[in-house]
Structures are given as C-alpha cells and as structure tokens.
Amino acid sequence: MNAPKKIDTGAEALMATAIRVLAMDAVQAANSGHPGMPMGMADVAAVLYNRFLNVDPSSPTWQDRDRFVLSAGHGSMLIYAINHMLGYADMDMDQVKNFRQWGYRTAGHPEYGHADGIETTTGPLGQGVTTAVGMALAERMHNARFGDDLVDHYTYVIAGDGCLMEGISHEAIDMAGHWGLGRMIVLWDDNKITIDGSTELSTSTDQLARFAAAQWHVQSVDGHDREAVAAAIEAARQDPRPSLIACRTVIGQGAPNKAGSHKVHGAPLGAEEIAATRAALDWPHEAFTLPKAVYDAWGAVAARGRAAREGWEARLSVSEQAGAFERSIAAPDAGALATAMEAYKAKLSAEAPKVATRKASEMALEVVNATLPNTAGGSADLTGSNLTVTAGMQPMSKDNYAGSYIHYGIREFGMSAVMNGIALHKGFVAYGGTFLVFADYARPAIRLSALMGLPVTYVMTHDSIGLGEDGPTHQPVEHLASLRAMPNLNVFRPADVVETAECWEIAATASQTPSLMALSRQNLPCLRTEHSAENLVAKGAYVLREADGARDVTLIATGSEVEIAMKAADLLAEEGIKAAVVSAPCFELFAAQDAGYKAAVLGSAPRVGVEAAIEQGWAALLGERSAFVGMSSFGASAPAETLYAQFGITPAAVAAAAKKLMK
Length: 663
Ligand SMILES: Cc1ncc(C[n+]2csc(CCOP(=O)(O)OP(=O)(O)O)c2C)c(N)n1
Ligand SMILES: [Mg+2]
Description:
Helix content: 40-55%
Largest sheet: 6 strands, parallel
Distance between the termini: 81 Å
Number of helices: 25
Number of strands: 20
Bound molecules: thiamine diphosphate, magnesium ion
Structural class: alpha/beta
Strand content: 5-15%
C-alpha cells in the first residue's frame, strides 16, 4: 500500500549508484572499512527505500516508522550513505567524509544513539537479525494493544552469510517462525563470499530449506534485478509468515576488477580500481559530491515518510487511546512504583518472610507488574525455577499477541537479543530469566544491552553453590566477576526479600542501564526487619548492622552470604570483637557514591569480604588489611549446606579470617 504507482527506474538506478560510490569513497578516505557489502546490496537497498520503507528524517523516532536493521553491520557505509541522502540532519557529508574517525557519528559499525536512523548497534554478526525479531515481536504486541491505526509497521533486515552462519540465527528464525512475525522481512545478501573466501569453504546449508523448516516464507531473486527484488518484497509483505528473500548479489558490484572477490569485503578498493569503477558506473562526479538528481530521488522517499508520519500523528491526535499509547512508550511511572514499593516493603519488614531471593523476585514482580501496565516478561524455559510469571499474565503467542509472558524456549542468547529489540522498539519494559550460570550463553547480547544503554532486566536465579545438587555445571563461580567487569551493567545480588524489592524498583525504572539480578535458589532470612522508606540498594552498599562502638572489623557480603556475615558478627561479639556488617548488593551503584559516603560505609577497620564466588573484582571494596572468604575453584554436587561447609564459607570461617587480620 506504500508503493508509489510509477517507479522512475532511472532515478532508482541513480540512488543505488550513489550508495556504491559513497561507500567506496568513504572507505578509501578512511583507508579502512568494508566497501563490498554496500556495493553489492545497493540495488536491494535502493528498491527497499524507494518503494517500501517509511521513515521520516525530520522525526527520526516517530513510533510507527518501519524499522531497518543492518545486521551485516560491517556494511555500515550503506546506512550512512542512505541516511545522508535521505537528509537526516546529523548525517551531513562531513560525517561521511570522516567515516571511522574520532568525534564523528560514522563509527566503524553502526552504533545506536550515535546518529539518528540507526535502530540498533550491529557488528557482532547474527545479533542484528535476532534483535530485529524483538522489534517485530514488540510491533505485534503493541498492535494487539493499540490497533492498526497506531501500530502498523514492518521490520526489514539486511543480513549476510555471516549472520546466517552464526548459531544465534537458528534461535532467531525459530522464534520468528513460531511467533508468526509476518512483518519481518530479511533480505539476505546471498553473495557466497565471506572473509576467508567462498562460502563453499565453510557451509553446505540450504538456507531456504532451513528457513522454510522454521515456518518462514522463502524466495530467491537476482539481487541486481530491481523489479524482481520489488516483486519479492511485495510478496513477502503479503505473506502472513516472516519472509526470507535470498538476494543473489555480487560483492563489490560495480568495481570492474575486484567485484565478486573476498578482496572487496573489508579493504579499500585503491585509487586505480576506484577510477575504473567511476568509469564503469559512468559517474563523473568527484568524491563526496552528489548531483541534485540523487538528492531529489532520496528526498522523495523522505517526503513519503513524512506524509506517512503526519497521517499517523493525525490518527493519534483523535485516538481515544492516545494517552495510554504515549505512556506506553514513555519512561515507566517511577513515582507510582515507588509508592507501591514503599507500602510493600513496610509489610515485608513487619512480616519478615524467609524466602529465596528468586521467590522474593516473584513477589516484587507482582507489585511491578500490577503497577506498570506494560511489562513483557519471560524465561528461557525455566519459568518455574526463575519465578518470572505473575498472577494474571497470559502467554504471548501468535494467536495471542495481547499476552505479556514470553516463552522464549531454551534460547538464552536469543531471549536476550530479543529483549534488546523490544526495548529498542519501545512499548514494553522487558525482563527475562534463566540460571545465572547461563549468563555466558547470553553474554554477547547482555553486552549490547549495556553498550546501547537499554533498560532490560536479566533475572538470573540459582546464583551460587547454594543451588546444591545440580553440581558444578550449574554453579556460577566466576560469573559475578565477569559480569561486574562489563561497563554500564548493574549487577544486583540482593540479600533478602526487602533488598530484592529495592533492586526491582531500580531495575524496572532504569533508563539507560540494563540490570542483572543474581538470585538465590535457597531460602534466606529477612534481614531488613526495620522499615526504611529510602531505597538502600540505590546506594550500592550500606551498613546493615553497625558495630557497638568503634569498629574492630567490617564484614562486607552480598546476597546469601550476608546472613553468614551477620552470624559471624555474632560469633565475634561473643569474643568482644566489634564487627560491622555491610551489605553490598550492587558494586556499580556503590562506585558511583561520593567519597564521604564510601568511607563511612567501609570504615577504617580491617575488612573481610564474603561471597560464594571468586575474589576478582572485590579489590575496590577491600583495603590493604583485608581477607576474602569465597570460592577459588568450581563447585561440586551435594546439598547446599554441605557445600558451604566443605568450601569453607561459614560464619566460623569468616570470624576466623577477621581475627587473623587483627593479630
Ligand atoms: C560474531 C562475529 N564474528 C566475526 C566477525 C568478523 N567478521 C566481520 S564480517 C565477517 C564475514 C562476514 O561474511 P558475510 O556476512 O558474508 O559478509 P560479506 O563478506 O558478504 O560482506 C566476519 C567473520 C563479526 N563481525 N562478528
Ligand atoms: Mg557474504
């Protein structure tokens, strides 16, 4: 319905040529980058934008725009060239000329937030297409709530051979097929070339058969035959299934001597080949100068997008659901959640339930999900263990996009990338669960959550040897340290039911930082029996129990080991040693406090750190006179109490470590 009636094929050819030339010239100027992919997919991209895709450069975040994901992120010059020619204000020619240079938006790979019109960060192959599944899912879920008038857009992806070889692509196509995401259209740059050479070196998969087996609509076209590409996209749009279009292309198309070779994948063409390409393309213009006809053609695309956006705004302005719609894409209502949480915390402190923090998370989620209308929860097939579903949540399925609970299946990486896509799309507050030990399976997507600053929440239960009998394959040991090593990720390890509520309040209303909760399988006593209206977790660490007089030692612990530290303080008190106990549920938030607060919490007495994990990363909390009680090996299979005793993480061991420091 968006396709204009008459296509000026001459203008469209010019649009494609301009992509090719800008890509080769920018890579040449940078003396680094990837010309092959943008040159090879220039025709496909020109058709997609010219005839189908609706974006408005004058309103880049208009909610009902079509989404374009360049999963083959190394071809970044494709998107920079297009966004420049479309007229995005922040993508002037200076940006293109300074591709890959310090201080410019035209980074080596497309970075979300650096420039308008970049819907997600891509570069780690396979993740873009999976993130796009999240966008396409969010589109359908949002549509189920607000209808076709307000939510009616497509998600287009350009993916390469690499994206389809990556394991995560299996999770992506499986989910999209199962969820029937018919508005997701993947344009595969089927050029049969990767860095090492021909794809024959490394794959024999029939991709069309693979996608078809996952319930996709599949087609194959000559990616340089623009009419064929247009017909395929039109057919893909009509089909109710997600669509794969294999676009047979020649990498570096337009370069007379180098096209078709892996040599154009990731290296400048060189002055000689660039001159030959200009001649072959009949392109007399100097580098970084484009004729008016090119801007006119791309400008017409922008004008169509603008008209579509204005039509949508007109519909929104008269919609009875306008208020609810705006709220769904705005920041969550932190005030409402704070009020609900304060009442909930007061009740907890009075009743002091002894529950596992995974159970505490479920209880907190009851409050979160009752207060924020647009959470989208889920688990990677561990719902009964992660305790991520709350009363009244309906499962989302292709027959019920109105559901809000997503059965992600056994796909931790896929779940995490999909959550990123949901957050990027907007409309929902996403969280999803698995075991903490499988954070490694999800890690590359957690990294992109952090890099992009997306407020998604990872609910990671069974957080230590405390899970017991499942044994060392399931017992995280190095995971907390490795996750704390990641910039812009808040790693929470609450000690009890109250801290867990506070963690959730922070996570559910975060704006630029993903949260990861490490939660216990085993029951833990309520330690915060005195109600505090203030969210103490927000400070990262705080004095849970002050010493009776000047401190002899400070015991610092997280999660399930705070109980152990409290008991150790009791043992020390029996010997007249004055110990303070600090609970440190979030190292990152503590690091952000001022020096005075940190000094007051940590004190000047010797310190003992306690955590059923490795010591790495504790240095910032432990001073020179310090000890650490934790793990230095993998765990083992046995009941939890046995494991704590055998690995020496006990009140007696903590007290002994404290006394040794005082000698
Ligand atoms: C996860 C991941 N592994 C490796 C790379 C490095 N890399 C970048 S492009 C590429 C080859 C991709 O081949 P293809 O998708 O066919 O791109 P083309 O050469 O056709 O442009 C590789 C291995 C990466 N970016 N991401
Ligand atoms: Mg390729």
